[in-house]
Specification:
The protein has 622 residues and is an alpha/beta fold. It is 39% helix and 17% strand. α5 packs antiparallel against α6, α6 (85-102) packs antiparallel against α7 (105-119) and α15 (382-400) packs across α16 (419-425).
Length: 622
Amino acid sequence: MNLRLPLLLSLLFFTAACATPVGVTKVDPRIVHQELTSNVLSQGVASGPSVIVLNRHDLYGRFTKQPEAALADLHQIVLSGRGGADEIFALAELSFLYAEETGKRTYYLASSVYAWGFLFPDGKDKPPSPFDPRFRLACDLYNRGLTSGFKLEDGSRVKLSSGNFVLPFGNLEVEFDPSELQWHGRELVDFAPVAELDVKGLRNRYRQSGIGAPLAASTVLPEAGSKPEDLVGTRIRVPVTLVLNLGDVRGQLGSGVIFGVMRLYGTDDVASVRIDNRSVPLEAEPTASLAVVLSDPGVWEMELKAFFGGEYIRKILHQTSRQSQLVAFRPYRPGLIPVVLVHGTASSPGRWAEMTNELFNDPLIRERFQFWYFFYDTGNPIAYSAMLLRETLTKTLQSVDPEGVDPALKEMVVIGHSQGGLLAKMTAIDSGTKFWDIISSTPFDEAQMKPETRDLLRRALFLKPLPFVKRLIFIATPQRGSYVAGWKAIKWFTDLLVKPATVVLTLTTDILFLRDTDAIAMDLQTGIPTSVDNMNPRNRFIQTLAAIPVAPGVAFNSIIAVRQSEDIEDGDDGVVKYKSAHLEDAESERVVSSDHSCQGNPHVIEEVRRILLLQSSMEPQR
């Protein structure tokens, strides 16, 4: 026994000597990275730097049991001068963590206040390095704290106003000038937070990292002085950023009262602001704002209604009389070339969403172009819809630039998909009497008809190139008609279309008169045609349009879709054959593997981007 005891004691001593108080264990690098980068926003836990501050001041246990008391203690440490940037950052993150656990608005606002003090020390400390991982996290805490701190009770909207708001350590006095709500002659209303939204249906989500709470705002026109040609659509949401400038937070903490000035910036107009003698980018969420617009079912409901409904679009315009058939996400901007996008049959401007998202967020494109969208009843006769497009474009340019001094407006690009490509072509042709000749053998000036009929026919059938249209881009356009339009089932289907009342009431009597003189063409023997009738390859309208060349001086490009399994020459996209869409004299032709609805195809978008940069005499940047 006595011999065994020293041996046992020696063994225990040796074992204890091998187990060091501090040691390391090899683990998966991904686990180490997760531990180093986890924080309140990514994992719902305090980051390493904040835990260090709690341990440094022996507040870790207190924070887990009495978080409000621990935060108050840490706040006092800062006020006493024993704490600096490290403690300010910890207060920002830990306040947000507590707010997330309890829903207390006061701690969301406190998080924003502390985060501002960390980011903009106003000479009290050096500004944080952009290489410091806390720098980006502090920006996000400030932004998210603003959003949550000023939300309405249901969380769906943010309220902007002056007021006195309670903080855990005092009060936040906010000043807000209502003039901040003015935006290009409109008033901004109904502010929806977008950073926390999950965006679906768009390939890429573009955002600009910076400072501020990104919001999507609706706009309203004041009654007085409103212009009927205002281009901003009634359903449009404007991406804006809310910034609460808190000045010298570190200098104000001791008083218990923090003063802030609430500012609102349209991120299409302003990309950065001056804070603490630095240029600071604004946080922006353009894709999320676009997605909010397109999440409105009304955007998509118009597609079939406008196809079947005759004058459905005009009914909309009657209800919102200050809007034309040309809409935009932003007001007219002098110096930017207009790109007009014309959708196809049973479609709507919403179908340009993917292309819009990509081109809007391309700096080279955004600096040179503005985008306008034409919407129309797609079941109407093509000549009638083209007349509306031509007249709407002309009227819009006269409205936005009555003196004709903006040279960019004279470089317009019109992009049309499917039927929209036919409308686009009709902005840039000299038709002479060709369209009238397929209606009647009687010379137009000799035909007996009412004055209003003569006026309508002259506007719809006798075309001259619009002088301001300089380029056309055809996408999946049935230049010689669509084979689908010739199907008997389609003919039966389109017989359900309601013809535009304007055309029917104006032309019926005079067409009957022409029929009595045996001068009426066979195409109109059965009445006013639909757009689908017009796109039947055997229809004289599409044959005539195909034979009319694009006017000299107008460039045009073709983008043609062919389904992947088919040879190009004999292929089609399910609606239009390659041979129908092909144009021998096009400046360029790009064939993409796609079905007919190809506006969102990445190759289509890249080709449009290339052509636009060519139009603006800029080389594509890779």
